[in-house]
Specification:
The complex is a heterotrimer of chains A (513), B (99) and C (503). By secondary structure, chain A is α/β, with parallel strands linked by helices. Helices cover 38% and strands 12% of the residues of chain A. The chains are: A alpha/beta (513), B mainly alpha (99), C alpha+beta (503). The structure holds magnesium ion (MG) and zinc ion (ZN). Zinc ion binds next to loops of chain C.
């Protein structure tokens, strides 16, 4: 522990923060205040947050402090640690927009299971993070509330859709954040912001209260600065939930133990042949190759593995996800919650619904609704949605075959480093290709992680580890080992190399009205 | 490249309750054509192979709950989020078009 | 507008093909996919939660009892039970449907290929058994209810706006679809009614629903088409909103008459949805322009497949109650009800109710008299079928028991039944609330007896003189002054005692 009283509480890992609080070196309220101050100082430039719940956070931190003071109460492993929640998870009494105009001002009357579990574990929810509208995007530029900026270079994208969560963690606004990953929305932002992001096994974390994008693919997971922190959050949020029928009724894999073990000796690692080459930037490929070599040095056996159907993952995804989305987003109809436009006494309900949805959804969401409506419509279903579900089977078979010879698969997490804001906005296909490497795990359902393995052109590069379903622990074994070895080489974390952000003193309260 | 007509997009927009204007319909038609062209390649593999579709990533069956009543939400809280409410109900514009 | 052709005439000229889609709200305690209470009549929107309101992020979980009930219905209808099936989303926008898709079943229903044998009263007074083939039985969820404001008589047409209540949204709904029923000859309407009656009895026997048509827990859509003998089936119409047994019959009848009228004058039948109006007994076209509906069904990703265990299905099959038809036959034989009598009960649609009343402890004759007598009159006055009256066979049996015990007179018993029909609760509640118990306490009756004697001295003298039959007038006076609550035999004894006349 390297933080004397008066040190910067925002620079601690989550594990360290919890220890500082549990041992009484700092109160949860002090920790929370430090992060709220940091948000006030840098979030004007980063725009990771859509809503900061200062009062709620302080109240929760006070409750943790009371529990710590009361020796009789046992507090969780992350009690008092500030947490940022992607704005796609509903929070009772705290606005939830999913990055969309159509939900502006909506105050949910209930908590997502993830929200209530983390609250119960003593994490302090400090705010809701920015995202591509309804998690549709790879740059957070499709947020209705303006883009988030990459803390490494404010002119670049932080990845998406969970760019806000990744940027909040990278900018030291919160040690932990929750993201959701439908096609890479945790891992690709982690990759381009130099943070750790994990998509757990589908069904490992409850989806109850997660505003649905694509139900068969969506999965919430941890965003952190270290592998151990990610494991701690993973363990706190995962586990069976009777409110989610697709939730797996089995013990959470031993992720924290695996992160601490951080040992790859004897582990068989497969490099996916199809997730390399054309479309992958040279610097990304170089950092990836170096990391693989390092894993070999650490005692892993590395071989190349072919997953021939991965090439079809992207097109299959862009049929399945929009199809499910077109149905999931039908509920935003101006009747029970959210925006209503055109209710002038003259328009019929159908007109009001259509006007509301036209005004409330952004262009990417509309594009996917139309695409999904098309792919499901009679006469096209078999050719599109039906075929895409078959590709899903083929991809699962690729994974199953690969895991007969290796324990985990690795690839670059993202084909490139963070690109400049606006660079791909007019080219949906180019944007979609950001998720080339991450999508296969979503279609298969297995867990996958991105962790930082170095810089290219001064920007972070992420490596992806993919494991069999319910073997989330393997991600952490690999991640923990690789992180330790890399930090030895770097002499610290990759994020310590990030440029300082411009800060703004929080404005003094003005006495005049 | 599959040709998606503006009329088709207009029909899809109607089905999905999106009031798109003329220029949006045009733009959407051409973008959809491009996207569908790019995704059409999946038939290369699925046409040849006799594979069952996968609808659920994790093969679980028979997940049910017992028939037990649990408390409902407070109605005031429910209606507080509604664009319009009247007499404990959600108020909506007239359902049928004026004749 | 063409003239309708009278029913019998229409069926002499055309062959009918009918089909019935019946929706049954299951009587589970909680909703299909959430734990909200299903009880009827609560304040609007008080039985709602994130799931049944379709709030962002909410997810469904299947009610186990709803699956069990559906399988039992399928078994009772002699269906095959699916080894493996999934729910599907049926996508269309409607304000009563919170998610704007209905979680239903599509190409993988829980039960398929069954039948139901129904008793159809024939014109010659006999009863014939008709086998109605069942296509499928599947499970889905009900919608909410809209109240239409600002138009004429709460109709959707002309309303300025509507108010939505989601208490019924998400109630488990079983849809039972027949295959096309052919060969009903001159009796398509009678077969349709007999089918729904029998189906209702089956469902009631299973205890899976309260099958109250007037509360909407059993609803019918009626499909009808006509063709000339030897020709292909005609275009069918689908009449919705048929919400009583007699309306089922009327809806088929009026549609046969309407279609025959069109066909005879060379017009086409439009494939359309029609709405039935209880008041006129006629239907009107539901949609002027046929809207292209495309439900974009796909397997519900938020629910996992249902794979009923074979041993469990076998257990459910073994534990099924006797079919109403079998039970009826057995009971009528056991009780010795004459064939003619049971036919009268079939015609009135009350045989099942009578038998249930007998099973609840009433003597057969009493049960029959109630259902063909006072209750039939009450039903007639309300324009409903007796079996649809808001009284249960057990309640009728209780009234019979109270009469037998001397706690009620025949007149009081009718008042108690009327109280039950008025929604005042069980017979004992009505007796207590209305103070209808027979008074046999001699002290309490003494004053009324003395009063009667004082009021009719001439009659009293006649009795004293030996004309004992004249005491009836005095008894009547006492009964009147006690509003029928006196025990007549006690009154008679007291009067004779007072007059010094030996019995
Ligand atoms: Mg239906
Ligand atoms: Zn509910």
């Amino acid at each position: 522990m390297s933080t004397p009283p008066g040190g910067d509480l925002t620079r601690l890992t989550a594990a360290e923060t919890a220890e500082v609080i549990a041992s009484g070196q700092a109160s949860a309220v002090e920790v929370t205040r430090a992060h709220l101050d940091r948000i006030a100082a840098v979030d004007g430039a980063v725009h990771a947050f859509l809503h900061v719940d200062e009062a709620g956070a302080i109240a929760q931190a006070e409750a943790v402090d009371a529990a710590v003071a009361d020796r009789a109460t046992t507090t969780g492993a992350l009690a008092g640690v500030p947490l940022a929640l992607k704005d796609v998870l509903v929070t009772r009494g705290v606005p939830t927009t999913a990055g969309s105009r159509i939900l502006e001002g909506w105050i949910p009357p209930y908590d997502a299971t993830v929200t209530s579990r983390l609250r119960a574990a003593g994490l302090v929810m400090i705010g809701k993070t920015n995202m591509d509208e309804f998690a549709m995007g790879s740059s957070t530029e499709h947020s209705a509330y303006g883009p988030t900026h990459n803390p490494w270079d404010l002119g670049r994208i932080p990845g998406g859709s969970g760019g806000g969560s990744a940027a909040a963690v990278a900018a030291f606004e919160a040690p932990l954040a929750v993201g959701t990953d439908t096609g890479g929305s945790i891992r690709q932002p982690a990759s381009v912001t130099g943070t750790v992001g994990v998509k757990p096994t589908y069904g490992g974390v409850s989806r109850y209260g997660l505003v649905a994008f694509s139900s068969s693919l969506d999965q919430a997971g941890p965003c952190a600065r270290t592998v151990l922190d990610a494991a701690l959050l993973h363990e706190a949020m995962a586990g069976h939930d009777p409110l989610d029928s697709t939730s797996i009724d089995a013990p959470v894999p031993p992720v924290v133990e695996a992160a601490r073990q951080a040992d790859v000796r004897g582990l068989r690692i497969g490099v996916v042949r199809e997730l390399a080459g054309e479309g992958y930037e040279q610097g990304v490929q170089e950092r990836f190759d170096e990391a693989v070599a390092l894993l070999q040095e650490l005692g892993a056996t590395v071989s190349e593995v072919s997953c021939p159907h991965f090439a079809y993952a992207l097109p299959a995804y862009y049929l399945i996800a929009p199809s499910e989305a077109s149905s999931n987003l039908a509920r935003f109809d101006s009747v029970r919650y959210g925006l209503r436009v055109g209710d002038d006494g003259g328009n019929s309900l159908e007109q009001v619904m259509s006007l509301t949805r036209a005004a409330g959804f952004g262009p990417e969401v509309k594009r996917r609704i139309i695409l999904g409506t098309f792919a499901l419509s009679s006469g096209y279903y078999d050719a599109y949605y039906g075929q895409a579900q078959k590709v899903r089977t083929l991809i699962t078979r690729d994974f199953t075959a690969a895991f007969e010879t290796v324990d985990v698969l690795v690839s670059p997490a993202s084909p490139g480093v963070a690109f400049p804001l606006g660079a791909k906005l007019d080219d949906p296909l180019a944007m979609y290709r950001q998720d080339l490497a991450t999508i296969p795990s979503n279609l298969y359902g297995g867990p996958a992680m991105s962790l930082p393995v170095g810089l290219s052109e001064g920007l972070p590069v992420g490596l992806q580890v993919m494991a069999p379903t319910m073997r989330d622990d393997l991600l952490y074994r690999v991640g923990g080992a690789l992180e330790a070895a890399l930090q030895d080489r770097w002499g610290g974390t990759l994020l310590s190399l990030a440029p300082e952000l411009p800060t703004r003193q929080s404005p003094a309260p003005h006495p005049e009205v | 490249m599959p040709e998606i007509t503006r009329e088709q997009v207009a029909h899809l927009a109607r089905l999905s309750r999106l009031a798109l204007d003329e220029s949006e319909l045009d733009a959407m038609a051409s973008q959809l054509g491009v996207i569908l062209g790019a995704v059409a390649q999946i038939s290369e593999v699925t046409d040849a192979a006799d594979v069952p579709p996968t609808t659920h990533a994790v093969p679980v069956e028979n997940v049910t709950r017992p028939d037990v009543v649990v408390p409902s939400l407070d109605r005031d809280e429910v209606l507080a989020g509604a664009p319009a409410a009247e007499d404990g109900r959600f108020r909506v514009p007239r359902i049928l078009d004026a004749e | 507008m063409t003239d309708a052709v009278p029913y019998a005439q229409a069926l002499a000229e055309f062959e009918p093909v009918i089909g019935l889609e019946t929706h049954v709200e299951l009587g589970t305690a909680s909703k299909m996919f959430c734990g909200c209470d299903t009880s009827f009549g609560a304040e609007p929107n008080t039985h709602t939660c994130p799931v049944c309101l379709g709030l962002p992020g909410a997810l469904p979980v299947v009610n186990a009892l709803a699956i069990e009930s559906t399988v039992r219905i399928g078994l009772a209808l002699h269906c095959d039970i699916a080894r493996w099936c999934r729910f599907a989303r049926k996508n269309y926008f409607y304000p009563d449907m919170p998610k704007n898709f209905q979680t239903s079943q599509y190409d993988e229903p829980l039960c398929t290929d069954g039948y139901l044998d129904v008793d159809v009263p024939q014109a010659d007074g006999t009863v014939e058994v008709v086998r109605v083939p069942i296509e499928r039985v599947h499970l889905e969820e009900d919608t909410g209810k809209s109240l239409h404001v600002g138009g004429a008589t709460g109709r959707i047409h002309g309303a300025s706006h509507s108010l939505v209540d989601y208490n019924r949204a998400g109630i488990p709904l079983v849809e039972i679809v027949t295959k096309p029923v052919v060969g009903t000859g001159a009796l398509p309407a009678e077969v349709a009614k007999a089918y729904v009656t029998e189906l209702r009895d089956v469902l009631r026997g299973l205890g899976v629903s309260d099958v109250r048509m007037e509360q909407g827990s059993l609803r019918c859509d009626v499909n009808v088409s006509l063709n000339r003998p030897g020709e292909e089936w005609g275009t069918r119409s689908e009449t919705k909103n048929v919400n009583s047994l007699r309306s089922v019959e009327r809806a088929v009848r009026s549609e046969v008459e309407r279609q025959a009228g069109r066909l005879r004058s060379g017009q086409r039948i439009v494939q359309e949805t029609r709405h039935f109006h209880e008041d006129s007994g006629l239907s009107t076209s539901g949609r002027s322009k046929e809207e292209a509906t495309d439900y974009r069904y796909f397997p519900e990703p938020d629910l996992v497949p249902i794979a009923p265990d074979e041993a469990w299905v076998a257990e459910l099959r073994a534990a099924l109650p006797e079919a109403p038809s079998v039970r009826r036959k057995k009971l009528t034989e056991e009780l010795g009800l004459s064939v003619l009598d049971s036919q009268a009960m079939v015609n009135a649609g009350v045989l099942d109710a009578v038998l249930a009343t007998v099973e609840a402890g009433a003597p057969a004759a009493e049960a029959r008299n109630w259902w063909l007598g006072h209750l039939a009159q009450a039903a007639n006055a309300r324009g409903v079928d007796a079996a649809d009256l808001p009284i249960r066979p057990e309640q009728v049996a209780r009234v019979v028991a109270l009469v037998a015990a001397g706690s009620l007179t025949a007149g009081l018993a009718r008042q108690v039944v009327d109280g039950v029909l008025a929604g005042e609760g069980d017979p004992d509640d009505v007796v207590a609330a209305r103070g209808l118990a027979v008074v046999s306490d001699e002290g309490a009756l003494g004053a009324a007896v003395d009063e009667a004697l004082a009021a009719q001295p001439a009659t009293a003298d006649k009795v004293r003189a030996g004309k004992v039959a004249a005491v009836g007038a005095l008894v009547g006076a006492v009964m009147k002054s006690t509003r029928g609550q006196a025990d007549a035999s006690v009154v008679r004894r007291l009067l004779l005692e007072r007059l010094g006349v030996p019995e």
